[in-house]
Specification:
Layout: H1 5-8, H2 30-39, H3 43-60, H4 66-71, H5 73-91, H6 99-111, H7 131-143, H8 149-165
Helix pairs in contact: 2-3, 5-6, 5-7
Length: about 170
Amino acid sequence: MMIPTEMNRQADDPAPTAPLGPLPFFAVGTHKFIVLSIFTLGLYDLYWSYRNWKQLKSVSGDRVSPFWRAFFAPFWAVSLFNRVHDAATAAGVRICWRAGPLGILYLILSMTWRLPDPWWLISLASFIPIIPVQLAAQRINARHGAFTPEARNERTAQQTSWPSSSGA
C-alpha cells in the first residue's frame, strides 16, 4: 500500500522550529504504524490510541483514562479524531477529512471480526481510517519542532549509505 507523500509534507508547511514542549500526539512513522497494525492483527491500533490519549492527557491536563479510552477505542475514535482535527486547525495544518465519518468507519471495520469466515478478514483493514489522522498528527508534531520518524529514517538511510559510497 502506498501512502501519498504530499499528505505528509506540503510545500506551504513552515519548517519546524525549536521544540515547544511536549508533543501533542504520539510520534510514530506512518509506515511503521501500517506494518505494525497488519502484523499485530489490529492490536497496534489500540496501542496507538492509548499513546495518543496519554499524550493528550499530559499536554492538556484533561481528566481522561487513556487505558479505558484505548480499550474501547472504536467507541472513542470520533472523540480522538476530533481532537486531532481541532489541533490541526489550531496549528494551521490543512486536512481534508472529517472526524465523524472516519470514526464511524473505524467502528464498523473493528466490529467485522464477528463475521463468519472469510468475512472477518475485513477487520484487518480497521487501521485504514486511522491513516489520515496519523498523518495529521505527524504534521502537527512537526509544527511543534518534532524530529519526525520519517526524517529519522531518511537520515539513518543516508548514514548507512555513506560508508559504501566512500569506497570503504
